[in-house]
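Lecture 7 notes: from sequence to structure.
We start with the chain below.
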Amino acid sequence: MSMLTPPGMGGKYRITGNRYPRMRRPRRRRRIALAAAGSALALSLVGWGTLQIVDIFSGGGDTAEAAGGAKGCSVKQAASPSAEARPEALPKPAEITVNVYNATTRSGLAKKTADALKKRGFRIGKVDNATAEYDKKVKAPGLLVGAPKAADGAFEVLGARLAGAKTEFDKRTNSGVDLIIGNAFKKLTPEQDALRAVAALASPAPEPTAPQDC
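Predicted structure tokens for the same chain:
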């Protein structure tokens, strides 16, 4: 029996040799690795949750901007510059005196046009052939001539009845407007279309601006 064999143990349990059995410590590396992986996962979840909370309270970042201010942002409407400079109300046809002149080679066109404008409520002044300055020199359907103050009033109301008409200012002091019929003239714009055009001029739609108050 070997000296290493404890009393009472023999047979196949006999310990032979001249070295003691090597007693190993418990393996803790696997536990340490698992603990480290769990800590990293927990930190990742905490960081992701923090980013989500920040994103919610900051309005959603690019998503909120793309939605046009749907989350906490308001989109303000602004009228166009021309609308801000426009008078409170456009003049009525009865407040506009129109002088009708024929600059074409078609006879009777001035009177025919003047009668049509009168039926639409305009006051008619002079009806005649155009002067040498304009006779056979107006290529557009018509030319509106008046004082500068007519630009935001009489020109728009009368011009709505004649699509493609040009405008020109002179030094007159009265509020009358000249309609010089040109070579491209065919007929006046249908009254219903003209009324819709004037209504749009009187109440222009506001233009959207960039989102604000975010």
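Points to note: The longest helix spans residues 29-57. Strands lie at 74-78, 97-102, 123-129, 142-146, 166-169, 177-181, 207-212.
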